[in-house]
Write a structure and sequence with these properties.
The chain is an alpha+beta fold. The protein contains 2 helices and 7 strands; from the N terminus they run E-E-E-H-E-E-H-E-E.
Length: 146
Amino acid sequence: MKQVTQRICPQCGYANGITANFCLQCGAALTAANDFQVVPHGTDLSFPVTGLDLTTAERAQLHHLIITMSPTIPTGYQSAGPIFVESAVAPQASQLAAWEDLMTHLYALLLARHYLGAVHLQIQPQAADSSQLCLYGEALTAAPQP
């Protein structure tokens, strides 16, 4: 499987070459701590989330969020009700940018409301503007302990 190591800027998210000491997009300083394995057309929660001003605790919490399209709520969790986020980027302009914008808004919502994840995620066009995307789902919280 093809994968490439790149230096991802923690300020703007730009994927720089592995030898870059400064971001080619915004000029931020880069080090080996900014090196990430990039698999073309795929990612996971270890990839840096850009566009969010996160505390150290919030950044650590990202790695524990459950995010799935499955309609089944995992054991130990319960529904906190429906959620949705909108993309401010039209997919016609850039599908990758529209997806990243949706995910950034989803992470922001989950962290701000102290949710533990989201299930039954679906992407649909916005009702008011079909050129924009919405992500619908169900938020998760911890189930009460007996």
